Amino acid sequence: MLRGLTTVSLFAEDVAAAARWYTEVLGVEPYFTRPLGEQELAYVEFRLGDHQHELGIIDSRFAPGPRPAHPGGAVTYWHVDDVEGAFERLLSLGATAYEKPIERGPGFVTASVVDPHGNVLGVMYNQHYLDMLNR
């Protein structure tokens, strides 16, 4: 039934500010934007990684329900080669620690942060991901 990750959607009250932050984090500009009036953005989308997965940022007013008071819920982990380095870089760019790096078993290390817009962002070293790329 589930065939693969298509788009990860995050929400932000200021999409333009979130887009600037993620542009700095990712090192790429969004490839798609949808304006909301003349001064605001309703949506931006990045393509990233080995499979060009989509990361979208949506204006919070279009969220399907109220945003929670505290970050939580599902955590999407993006593969990185150096979890500790990625975690520290995210903190240096204004994110706050959600879960410090922890080894989950041989070849699997996770960490997560809360971005400046209240979204949880996970990073993970995942040997299975690398094995799949090599096939």
Description of the molecule:
- The chain has 135 residues and is of the alpha/beta class.
- It folds into two domains: 1-61, 2,3-Dihydroxybiphenyl 1,2-Dioxygenase, domain 1; 75-135, 2,3-Dihydroxybiphenyl 1,2-Dioxygenase, domain 1, CATH 3.10.180.10.
- The chain has three helices and eight strands; from the N terminus they run E-H-E-E-E-E-H-E-E-E-H.
Q: Short summary of the structure?
A:
The chain is an alpha/beta fold and 135 residues long.
Tell me the layout of helices and strands:
Elements: E1 7-12, H1 15-26, E2 32-36, E3 40-48, E4 53-59, E5 77-79, H2 83-92, E6 96-105, E7 108-114, E8 120-126, H3 127-134
Parallel strand pairs: 1-4, 5-8
Antiparallel strand pairs: 2-3, 3-4, 6-7, 7-8
CATH superfamily of the largest domain: 2,3-Dihydroxybiphenyl 1,2-Dioxygenase, domain 1
Apparent shape: globular
How many E strands? 8
Residue stretches low in confidence (pLDDT < 50, at least 5 long) are none
Derived structural class: alpha/beta
- Please give the share of residues in helix: 10-25%
- Biggest sheet details: 4 strands, mixed
Structural domain tally: 2
Distance between the termini: 23 Å
- β-sheet strand percentage: 35-45%
The CATH topology label of the largest domain is: 2,3-Dihydroxybiphenyl 1,2-Dioxygenase, domain 1
- CATH level 1 name of the largest domain: Alpha Beta
What spatial order of strands do you see in the largest sheet?
1-4-3-2
DSSP summary: helix tally: 3
As a whole number of angstroms, the C-alpha radius of gyration is: 15 Å
N-to-C SSE string, H for helix and E for strand: EHEEEEHEEEH
